[in-house]
């Protein structure tokens, strides 16, 4: 990246809308570095009065985000694992609890942590390209989505769809994702940014204060659950991911990814 | 109204069914007076052994109920505001927890508190007239639906639809409302009362005791939430609605309504 | 039955899949004897390392299970009623909390306790025969589904459908059941066992440990609710079912069943 930030922020002060683009090729993997940048950018927008809405999207063709960078979870010290997990939590806390109206413009595949980012926004638009997939597919890697990933999914698609989706680690096509309510709307790929702006205008037509209180009424309990168990959740993650069996699973998966590339 | 009651009650003792019609032109606004009458009528039916079912509908063409009478919230003393809010709570407690089988025959528009009344019944039939709208549109007025409005909506349409619906203050056409499950059935306007009677017969075919226990099993927790925080909820309302910013919002809205009429 | 077990277990060790067939004519009524056999069989499979998945189905044509054997609830001592109810609880605890991937192949009608068994599996396939019905129809008999029946339904079809379904004691055709999500898939009757095997293969493609943790994350709270109130729930059942009014309801129902047969 030669020093260029992997998080491109463009704030239209007149509209009050920031567009945040992830640009960490090849797959916008959520490394500790990217998470740190992204949280910093989100916090700045959160603190900026001129900003009322946020569109989250990708600058990497074909991928929204592949989720957590798997290299951050393999062969790392407990301290580093803990630092990484705290950053993942922080991203979710910022996005899921944002005072801003948030629209995900999912312009590419969005598995695992990528799906979580989309789930944390107020509205999800996905490019209707059958090559793209979205879902919490953790079980396929032999790992388990943490409880707050689960809660965010459950609040979006309901208990039954969440049960099946999480156990099977299902990755959905845009049409399937739309059908179960995992995304709110499908658009042709070339129109996704324009449509995100239109949708945002609809959200910003509502007085901020009333919208924010309504959002909080529906999300506070889910957010508080993590906030109250944040340290325990970090310890759970570190302990789980450090297990020999899990490290071996991750190694296998990484080798498979390398072979795919080659 | 020249002393006529705004709440018309017709009890068919043979069928065990009462039809309650709101008749407070122009929009069945829930004033303190109407709320008091309505709660009294509902309590009487609740206490009357001959009554097993209740159809709630409107005698004012084109409107089910426009919800809380906004003049009750503007420029009032704290004491009066508290009295008003207690009556709103009481209406919901009576309807949502009724031992009766309750069917809403939504024969007109039904925003905000009107929607809440419909949500509190066991079954909702709506006249399929695209001019009619239903929904919790509080945020559009700069105010926020209280938590028990939110809970009643959430129990009906699920978490995701509730999030979007409440934040955007969405008003749905009958077709849209049916699609998200906000109403159970659409019928041509002229058939709504006959259909309500048919549906009621289906509900009354079930032994009361078993039906009531099943209803309570699904609603008690939601009801208890308000019952246990009733005073705090009144204080929250009084404090919130008394704010300068909110009073100004309400004033603007009232002026807009006046201009519409003129 | 001449001593033959009413629970047929066939374990394919290579596939890691057990097929459990209920064979208690005429309707696979859940008597204390059948419950005891079934729980024993389930516990054995649970403890057997070679077993990873379970298909639950019926060997009696046209019926999956008619649910609790009503003769177990009529004219019995409190002690016997308590023993019976504990066995019903045990069946649910085993099925709903199973470490195995569980698929219900619902090849016949499945009211009340039969429906509960299906609801407790991870996936439900139903034979698309319009003569078959499925649902928690307890209120039609004047009784009430216990809270954990309600919770299992609620986790499957959501709050609104559960409210209507439980209050009215609705029995759904396969098409209706599919529409509200009470079953996941419909297949021609002759293909149901083959399809169950296919679906099971999909579930077993996921590493057991990750699948089990995901399942537990979504079911533990519901399970714990019963586990923590198990004795009180037994007392509630015994007290409720012993009431004169309930015993009379059951008697009426049994006489109606006898007349139907004759």
From TrEMBL, chains A, B, C:
Keyword Transmembrane helix: no
CC annotations in GO: mitochondrial matrix
Pfam families listed in its UniProt record: ECH_1
Keyword entries, A-Z: Acetylation, Fatty acid metabolism, Isomerase, Lipid metabolism, Mitochondrion, Transit peptide
GO terms for MF: delta(3)-delta(2)-enoyl-CoA isomerase activity
Keyword Lipid metabolism: yes
Gene3D superfamilies: 2-enoyl-CoA Hydratase, Chain A, domain 1, 6.10.250.170
Catalytic activity: (3Z)-dodecenoyl-CoA = (2E)-dodecenoyl-CoA; (3Z)-hexenoyl-CoA = (2E)-hexenoyl-CoA; a (3E)-enoyl-CoA = a 4-saturated (2E)-enoyl-CoA; (2E)-tetradecenoyl-CoA = (3Z)-tetradecenoyl-CoA
EC annotation from Swiss-Prot or TrEMBL: 5.3.3.8
Location of this chain's protein in the cell: Mitochondrion matrix
Gene Ontology process terms (BP): fatty acid beta-oxidation
Protein's pathway: Lipid metabolism; fatty acid beta-oxidation
Subunit architecture: Homotrimer.
Family under the similarity heading: Belongs to the enoyl-CoA hydratase/isomerase family.
Free-text function comment from the UniProt entry: Key enzyme of fatty acid beta-oxidation. Able to isomerize both 3-cis (3Z) and 3-trans (3E) double bonds into the 2-trans (2E) form in a range of enoyl-CoA species, with a preference for (3Z)-enoyl-CoAs over (3E)-enoyl-CoAs. The catalytic efficiency of this enzyme is not affected by the fatty acyl chain length.
Protein name per the record: Enoyl-CoA delta isomerase 1, mitochondrial
């Amino acid at each position: 990246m030669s020093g260029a930030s992997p998080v491109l922020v463009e704030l239209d002060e007149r509209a009050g809308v920031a567009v945040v683009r992830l640009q960490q090729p090849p797959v916008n993997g959520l490394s500790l570095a990217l998470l740190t940048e992204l949280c910093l950018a989100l916090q700045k927008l959160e603190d900026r009065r001129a900003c009322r809405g946020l569109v989250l999207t990708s600058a990497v063709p074909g991928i929204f985000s592949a989720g957590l960078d798997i290299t951050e979870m393999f062969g790392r010290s407990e301290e580093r694992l803990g630092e990484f997990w705290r950053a993942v939590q922080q991203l979710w806390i910022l996005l899921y609890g944002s005072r801003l109206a948030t629209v995900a413009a999912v312009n590419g595949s969005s598995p695992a942590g990528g799906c979580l980012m989309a789930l944390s926004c107020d509205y999800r638009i996905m490019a209707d390209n059958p090559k793209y997939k979205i879902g919490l597919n953790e079980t396929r890697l032999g790992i388990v989505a943490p409880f707050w990933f689960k809660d965010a999914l459950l609040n979006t698609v309901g208990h039954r769809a969440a049960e099946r989706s999480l156990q099977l680690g299902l990755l959905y096509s845009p049409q399937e994702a739309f059908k179960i309510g995992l995304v709110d709307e499908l658009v042709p790929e070339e129109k996704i940014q324009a449509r995100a702006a239109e949708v945002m205008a609809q959200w910003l037509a509502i007085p901020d204060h009333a919208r924010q209180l309504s959002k909080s009424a529906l999300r506070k309990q889910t957010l508080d659950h993590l906030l109250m168990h944040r340290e325990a959740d970090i310890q759970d993650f570190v302990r789980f991911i450090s297990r020999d069996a899990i490290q071996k699973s991750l190694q296998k998966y990484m080798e498979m990814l390398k072979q795919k590339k080659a």
